[in-house]
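Team,

Forwarding the record for the chain on the shared tracking sheet. I've put the sequence and predicted structure together so nobody has to dig through attachments.
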Amino acid sequence: MSLGLEGLRDVDAARAIAAEIAEESRQPLKLMEVCGSHSHAIARYGLHDLLPDTIELVPGPGCPVCVAPQEEIDLAIELARDPGVVLTTFGDLIRVPGTHASMDQVRAEGGDVRIVLSPMDALATARQEPQRLVVFVAIGFETTAPGVAATVRAAEADGVDNFSLLVAHKTMPAPMRALVEAGECGVQGFICPGHVSTIIGSEAYRFLPDEYGVACAVAGFEPLDVLLAVRSLVRQHETGQPQVDTQYGRAVRAEGNPKALGILNEVFEVRDSRWRGLGEIPVSGLGLAERYRSFDVEDRLGLARHPVEPNPACRCGEVLRGIMRPMSCPAFGKACTPEDPLGPCMVSSEGACAAAWQYRS
């Protein structure tokens, strides 16, 4: 259940910021929190209840597991069924339903699926079991991609030839551009993702105010961080002066993290990519650069991705596009629960539906 104000470290500060927002917000304003961690913070602390009726907050495509299209999940499950493969993955991916099963179900049937805390753990497994092909499901945004890139470099340096990646990385802020251009959700401002922004920098969002007149504010993950970002977006909207503001200055720089970006750009190259709910988005994904292509399991085993439509009863795609709230989905809490999910938004640790379920009141 939602913790509400009792869960805040500084209730008085939260009330003061909320009062300023209520006083200054006169025009209707629809904001999207792009990061799944923000969705969980908003739900956990009941921040919706602190804001005036003029402000609407909707989740967006900020959960990397949720935006993976069905064919990427199915390909991971296909690898999990291969007796010659040890499939390693982060824990929140293991229960995402594929077309016919989940990795968890394949593991229960005897598939060698292992949860790891980092790609380096997967590489350690490859060193320990040289007779097996160890595949790491490389999923995530720019936050996790540099760590995967460092792992690939380490595997090359040590000559570990039984280690491969299933590359499913996506990048920001390409989907934000796609959402604005589609015009479907009517978002007027973005609460930009904190973790991603520590890598790519706040200036990566410059095109939003400059080209589209859309307000931006990078936020951290404490409730006060989110409220400060909302206040910034209200002020930008009310004054008609959209900009890129940073309310997470303790971690985010305008230029990002040059070292992390350097290794990222060495090991990976930008590609077009398919997203759940959003379709094909130009320059929104990563693939291994030519030098490191031998670590791509799809090339190594001659695998192919075949676009697959997800379960039609799952409305995760509409939630990711900001046009449906999780609890408005007809299946929410009925045909779709954490124990028996229809899609990734209900089981991923950053999923908006998981947040709505966990902190419902």
